[in-house]
Amino acid sequence: MLPEHDLTSDLASSLSRLTEEVGREHERAAHREQIIDRLHAENQQLRHGLLQEALTPVRNGLYRLHDTVAREAARLEPGHARDLFEAIAEEVAEVLARTGADRIEVTAGDPYDPNLHRPAGTAEGPANTVVGVVSDGFRCGDRVLRKAGVVIGKEEIS
Amino acid sequence: MAVHGIDLGTTYSCIASVDEVSRPTVHRNTEDTDTTPSVVFFETPENVVVGQTAKDSAVLEPDLVVSRIKRDMGLDVTRTMHGRPYTPEEISAFVLRKLAADAEMATGSHVEDVVITVPAYFGAAERDATRKAGQIAGLNVIDIISEPIAAAITYGVLNPGENCRILVYDLGGGTFDTTVITLQGGDIEVVCTDGDHELGGADWDDRLVELLAERFRLEHPDVTDPLDDKQTEQQLRRDAEELKKSLTSRTKHTVRVMHDGRVAKAEVSREDFERLTRDLLDRTIEITRRTLATAHAKGVESFDHLVLVGGSSKMPAVAETLAKELGVQPRLQDPDLAVAKGAALYAFEETYRRLLAGGAREQAEEMAARAGLSSGEQQRIAGRTIKTVASRAFGIKAVSVNTRREYVAHLVQANDPLPADVTEGFATLDDYQTRVAIEVMEQAGAEASEAVEDNNRIAEGDLAIPPGKPAGFPIEVTFTLDTSGLLHVTAREHETGQELSLNVQIGGMTEEDVAESRASLSHLTVS
């Protein structure tokens, strides 16, 4: 049998080794937990993002339809045909709204905002102001899905 | 602190870093896209806008918008905006600042240490300019690496321990590059590189736009041309892009071209598209074959992997034709982001290796632990090195004694392994010369040539000669080219020990200029 003090010191050193090891394991586990938390949060966002991304080609097709019909309506003389084209464009915007894409309200006279407007050209008019809308923009909450195509005023145009 | 990899592209740029589970991750910008247009808009003297909004602003202020600045890297040109001249390095620095700021926004961690990628054909001048752009942006550029190497790292890391020869086919929006790389025992070496810098996916789009317009013209010759109307033209560009995408999964697609109150139905099959663009694809195949022939001459007689990089390589005809022509099944994985991801992996590994080499083992281990690397993986990274080759030949202007003809004597040849350290002896031409002009030349074209007009002068300096020396007084010139392609030239004469040291200085930007730019541009806001 070993002397008692040796046994005690052995036990003490084993215990301190064990404590150290448990401490390291604990740290690693905490690190893993952090990662899992983050992955979980990202996964939630991703699931939402994937849904949104699946809608992208559908929305792109609808934007195109909306643009074309609205453009043709604008070309027509006032009358039944024009009303009909305008109604179709409105219907398409309604369908887009049902996918979560709301129309960005832009009217001539609005100050130019590069976050909402994509300049499609310039024309004579008050500087840095929207003078015409060539295609509607759409947003989903705070996120701009498509900027509105606008014509921006430039004061002296020779 | 994370280290980042940056793909600073001609049309688009991208930033990535290695995450907690040692995967390279691309950081989206504040506009929620993976890549940011490399376009800079000098909105006011105090504010610079980078990215999609800058691209859109070209319609309003074309003179204040700069795109494709990468093509000017290494050139001594400036663009004056609001009365201040900006060098290509400074303009690129704005793109880098936007990428870094957005990555900080996305991850919450500060971006400082970065690796920036450049095309394999970039010479000393362009590489140096790219490094300076990073410094002006307030970044610590730990290295500049070639894009195909970065892409090969993304693929190479997926097959550790596998010796192989890789052909990288990179078809981007506006450029095409091919490179042969060997991977041996984890070492990556660039064997040779080639390409066409005026050929890219945009050429395929142009053909489709023209086809759609032509179908409309045929059906409605009595109305205006659809390409004369800005809105219709823009719509046709979008339609062409959609059509191209659609033809990757479908064999035919119909586009209704609407213009001036008329409509033309254009049915386009995949065969139509491929026939229409066959010569473009053939051009890439021809260049690929030329690259393989160069590699063959350098002892790389075949290859194991064909790696496709660049968004345009997603077109099915690319992979099909390459497989048929070269007999190897191409690998296509994340072609848009492979370069940035590879740069991030390289940045991570290189930092780890440098910490170890510098004796900072604890820091290195902490870094590895944060990325969740096992000790085996750590050892593998520690042992991996990257060797590169000179992208062009370098030399000095010399005069032949007998004929007095000026020519370029190349000390370093294209594809010589780096780092290269070459010394050659020259001599004075006339009796009692007091100085010798040292003009450092870099190969300009695809092939090295000793004709002066086929080389660009990239640096110059004067070496003083002791008085009273007859013709034939010996001088010695040493070229030192480091692994990132930066050149240092020393010329000396042994009698008095006179020495001339030249650091290749491009676009007139000295280290002081860089420090000054960095300070003066830091007051500008970049959004």
What report would you give on this structure?
The complex is a heterodimer of chains A (158) and B (527). Chain A has helices spanning 4-75, 80-98; strands spanning 102-104, 117-124, 130-135, 137-140, 143-146, 148-154. In chain A, strand 4 (137-140) and strand 5 form a beta hairpin. Chain A contains two helices and six strands, in the order H-H-E-E-E-E-E-E. In chain A, the strands form two sheets. A three-stranded antiparallel sheet of chain A has the order 1-4-5. Chain A has a three-stranded mixed sheet with strand order 2-6-3. With 158 residues, chain A is an alpha+beta fold. In chain A, helix 1 packs antiparallel against helix 2 (80-98). Chain A has two domains: 1-100; 102-158, Head domain of nucleotide exchange factor GrpE (Nucleotide Exchange Factor Grpe, Chain A, domain 2, Roll). Chain B is of the alpha+beta class and 527 residues long. Chain B folds into three domains: 4-156 and 335-388 and 514-525, 2-Layer Sandwich (Nucleotidyltransferase, domain 5), CATH 3.30.420; 201-274, Actin, Chain A, domain 4 (Alpha-Beta Complex); 394-482 and 486-507, Substrate Binding Domain Of DNAk, Chain A, domain 1. Chain B is built from twelve helices and 28 strands. In chain B, strands 1, 2, 3, 4, 10 and 11 form a six-stranded mixed sheet that branches. In chain B, helix 4 packs across helix 9 and helix 9 (338-357) packs antiparallel against helix 10 (361-370). Classes of the chains: A alpha+beta (158), B alpha+beta (527).
Short description:
Chain A has 158 residues and is α+β, with helices and mostly antiparallel strands. Chain A is 58% helix and 20% strand.
Give the count of structural domains of chain B: 3
CATH architecture annotation name of the largest domain in chain B: 2-Layer Sandwich
| Parts with pLDDT < 50 across at least 5 consecutive residues of chain A | none
In CATH, what is the class of the largest domain in chain B? Alpha Beta
Q: What is the helix tally of chain A?
A: 2
The overall strand count of chain A is 6
What can be said about the biggest beta sheet of chain A? 3 strands, antiparallel
- Seen as an oligomer or otherwise, the chain set is heterodimer
Order of helical and strand elements of chain A:
HHEEEEEE
Task: Give the tally of β-strands of chain B.
Answer: 28
Structural class of chain B: alpha+beta
Radius of gyration of chain A: 32 Å
Q: Supply the number of helical segments of chain B.
A: 12
Q: What's the CATH H-level homologous superfamily of the largest domain in chain B?
A: ATPase, nucleotide binding domain
Helix content of chain A: 55-70%
Molecular shape of chain A: elongated
| CATH T-level fold name of the largest domain in chain B | Nucleotidyltransferase, domain 5
State the major sheet of chain B: 6 strands, mixed
Percent of sequence in beta strands of chain A: 15-25%
Strand content of chain B: 25-35%
